[in-house]
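1st attempt posting a full record on here, be nice pls
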Amino acid sequence: MAKTLPLERQTRTLPNGMKVILIHKEGFSRSIFMIGIPAGGTNITDQINGEIVRHPMGCAHYLEHQMFRLNGEDVTYPLARARAKTNACTSYDETCYYVWTNADPCEPLKLLIDFVQTLEISDETVNKEKGIILSEYSQYEQEPESRLLNETFKSLYVNHPMREDILGRPDDISNMTADHLRQFYTTWYDPAQIVLVGVTGHPLEPLFEFIAKQEEQYPSSFAPNAKIERILPEEPIEVNRKEFVLPMDVDLNYVCVGVKLNPCRKDGQTIVRDDYMLNLWLNGTFGSMNPKFQTWLDTHLVGGMSGAEGDLNRDHGYILIYAQSEDPKRFIETMEQVLKDKKPLSQEVFDSLLIREKASSIRLADRFENLAFQSVEGHFEGFDPLQDLEILDTITLQDVTDFINNLDFSHISHTIIHPLQTDLEKNADGQDEQAAKDQKIETQE
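the predicted structure (as tokens):
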């Protein structure tokens, strides 16, 4: 696929161990540079050369909040002077910091390299951030879609850290210290651990030389044969809880059917192919291309928010089927029956979905941010995002049908968020309860 896209990609390893991937997009003035850290929300227990190191939950995300200081000031100010912007994000597996600009990329790139590889924290700065992160946690707790996802993961997983919020628990946030963050930083932010990805319209060789020069001041503190890895607890295939119901201040029910799948212990490219096959079937079965979907809408089984998605990884696998629904019980029954039936896609639906996925892969060349993110993830997970079109070309309808038939959909959990009772409903319930008590007394008499 790489040959079919107007891209030139080069990869090098610097003397300090940093991996650098630069992608040239001819004719574009915009540049984005991203540094990826191979640690995220699930890094609770790590092993360094045989020694176990434990971190508070939410450590990766908390550290991300603390990283935007350089030479005693907020790094967004010198970046603004260089006509650049910055952002960051923490997922379950990675943390990414990035800058983008339409101007000369060297100064923003230098600032990115410096602030990610320079830790400026103190007890004061860490304590100051606690209120901000606790507020962020509270905000997510009150958003029904975020809460639906989090509670579904809590239901699916018994021990896996995915059952916990990436932000951590409130107690972890409140008790976070500068020493906790320094330990996490020392473990995962060494140049031998990280990758720098750039997507730019500028020539690559001068940028490689510039990056190599900047990295001379950041030698690795790890031995060449150092072994650092995340340690995950044993996870049973059974779900943690089969159903969870939560009242919230919402106007309509939110419901999710979660399916726990076996981890996909294969090479990176095969996992990508399996993931495509799973999601092709989910999109064709639970999306608008299914002829039954309009009936689901007309009968208010699904509302304005609905969808289905799956994720396969070496340490987990799941399916989420979710919607706003006037009848969550019927939604659950209907979706479980569809899962049980495993009906194959029609050739027409499969062809349409495959064309859509191929078009998305081709458009990746124009989506600098997505290309950078996927390049970071691909580096750590062992797949090449520029080969997705080649992978899609190998998938047939029969492949999808056979793959789905071999999956076990029996480990299911339901999550329902329903509206709070109104005062009138509470009064009515109270009156009904009292009437029942009165009836019981009369019967006894």
